[in-house]
Amino acid sequence: MTREEARNLVYGNPEVAVDLIVQFSEAVEILKARVAELERKIALLTRDSSNSSKPPSSDGPGKKPRAQRPKKSRKRNPGGQPGHKGTKRELVPIEEVDHVEEVIPESCESCHRPIEPGTSRVLGNYLRCQVTDIPIIKPLVTEYKLRCVECSCGATTWADIPPHARSGFGPRFTAMLAYLTALHRVTRRGCKEIAQTLFGIDISLGSVCNLHEEVSQALESCCEEIKQALALEKVLNIDETGWKSLGKRIWLWVFVSPSMAFFTLAASRGARVLRETLGQTFSGILCSDMFSAYNAYHKGLRQICWAHIIRNLKGLKHGCRSPDGVKFSKWMLSEAGRMFGFWHAFKEGFVDRHTLVKKSVPLRARMNRCLQTYELSSDPDVARTARGLLKHWNHLFTFLEHEGVEPTNNSAESAIRPAVQWRKICFGNQSEKGQVLTASLLTVTRTCFLRNKNSFEFLVDSITAHRLGLPTPSLLTASC
C-alpha cells in the first residue's frame, strides 16, 4: 500500500482504516513474539561448553577457537622459545641397562682414513645414547598336572584345581583387561583383539565378560568401604550425568573428596540416591550445582559451583535477547571476575584468608544489589537467573571462609568426564552386573588416581586376594 492509497483509505473509509490498523498491531505483536522465540532457539543452537552446561566433547572439531590476546611480536616462532627450560627423557642408570653395545667411528674426522679395530687407541671418554623398546611378548603358561593318588585303603583320589587357577587366566592378564576397559574405554571386542594381537592369547568374548565379572566381585568390598567412608568426609563434591542400561535412561552419580571417589548407578536423579549413599543427613560441606535434589537433601553448608553460574551468565549475554540480559550478565561477570582475582591471589599466597574475606565484602554487596535490581526484569531468563541466585545466596561464598572448599565443582566434573567418554563408546550397560562393574571400576581407578596409586597393580592384588580367599586390599589405608 502506497502513502496515497493509505491517505484515501483513512479519509474515505475511516472504519476500515481503524480495523486495518488494529490487525496490523496484532500482527506486529505476534511477529515480535515469534522473532524473540526464534532468537532464543538460535542462541540455544549456537551455545557451546563455554556458555552453557554442554560438555566440551559436544563442541566438535568445527568450533571456532576462542579469541586470544594479540601476540606482542609477529616474529615469534612456534614451539619452545629461547630460555625455555624444556623437558626431556632421562637416561636409565647404567646398572638398569639390559644390553650395552660399543660403537666405534668408521673413519677419522681429520684425515678421513678408515679406523680399523685394534689399530687405534680407544679413549676412556664416551657419549651415552639409549634406545628403549619392548621385547617380543610371549605369554607365561603354567600347567597344573592334577594327579591321581591311590590310598592305602585302596581308594583313588584326584587332586582339585588350585583356586587361583580355576579361571584359566592369571590375575595380571585379568587386571590388564579391566584396566584397558576402565581407563582407556576399550570395548570387549577390543580387549579380545589386543589379547590376540599383542599377547598371542586366544580368548572369547564370553571369557572377557566372565573375567570382568570376577573383577567386579573382587572389588565389591573395597567399593563398599569407600561408600561407608564418604559420610565422614568434611567436603564432598557431587555430580550426576545420564546413562543407559538395558535401553532405559538411568543416572551415574559421583561423590568426590580429596582422597577418594565413589560412583554409583541409580534409576533416580532425586535426593533418594543421596540418602542411600550418605545417610539421612550429611554433616560436611556439599559442593554441587543448583540442581533441586541437593537443596532438598542437604540443609547444612553448601557451595554452589561458580563455573555453572558463569556459563549461564555467558549464555544470557550470548543470547542478546534483551537489554536487561546484556546489562545483567556484564555486571555479574565483571564482579565474578574480581572475585576470582582475589581468590587466585589467595591461592598463590599473596593474601591471607582474612584479607580475602574482607576484600570480598563490597564485591558481594554489589552482586546482591545487581540480583535485586533484575529479579523483576521483563526478560524471564534474567529474572529466573537472578531469583535463583538470590535463593541460593547463602551457598555462593562458602569457599571464601572455609578451608578445603573450592568455588567450582571441577573435581566432580573431572572425575565424571572419563565416564562420559566411556558412555559415548559403549552406549551404557546391558545388564545389572554390567552396572556394578562400571561403578566399581570407576570408583577404584579414580580413587587410585587421587591417592597417587598404581591402579593396575591394585587390580592385580585385589584379583589375587579374591581367588585365594584372602581379605581384599583396602584403598583407604596408608599401606595400600
- Per DSSP, the total helix count is 16
- Give helix % range: 40-55%
Order of helices and strands: HHEEHHHHEEEHEHEHHHHHHHH
Contiguous low-pLDDT stretches (5 residues minimum) are none
Gyration radius over CA: 33 Å
How many strands? 7
Query: How do the strands line up in the largest sheet?
Result: 5-4-3-6-7
Overall pLDDT confidence: 87
Classification by helices and strands: alpha/beta
First CA to last CA: what distance?
A: 86 Å
Shape: extended
For the sheet with most strands, the description reads:
5 strands, mixed
Which percent band covers the strand fraction? 5-15%
SSE diagram, text form:
Blueprint: H1 3-12, H2 14-45, E1 148-150, E2 156-158, H3 171-184, H4 188-199, H5 205-218, H6 220-230, E3 235-245, E4 248-257, E5 260-266, H7 271-278, E6 285-288, H8 292-297, E7 302-304, H9 306-319, H10 323-347, H11 353-374, H12 380-391, H13 398-401, H14 410-426, H15 432-450, H16 455-468
Parallel strand pairs: 3-6, 6-7
Antiparallel strand pairs: 1-2, 3-4, 4-5
Helix pairs in contact: 1-2, 3-5, 3-15, 3-16, 5-15, 5-16, 9-10, 10-11, 11-12, 15-16
Structure description:
The chain is of the alpha/beta class and 480 residues long. The protein has a domain at 235-240 and 255-412. Helices cover 49% and strands 9% of the residues. The chain has helices at 3-12, 14-45, 171-184, 188-199, 205-218, 220-230, 271-278, 292-297, 306-319, 323-347, 353-374, 380-391, 398-401, 410-426, 432-450, 455-468, and strands at 148-150, 156-158, 235-245, 248-257, 260-266, 285-288, 302-304. The strands form 2 sheets. A 5-stranded mixed β-sheet has the order 5-4-3-6-7. A two-stranded antiparallel sheet has the order 1-2. Helix 1 packs across helix 2 (14-45), helix 3 (171-184) packs across helix 16 (455-468) and helix 5 (205-218) crosses helix 16. The model has no long low-confidence stretch (mean pLDDT 87).
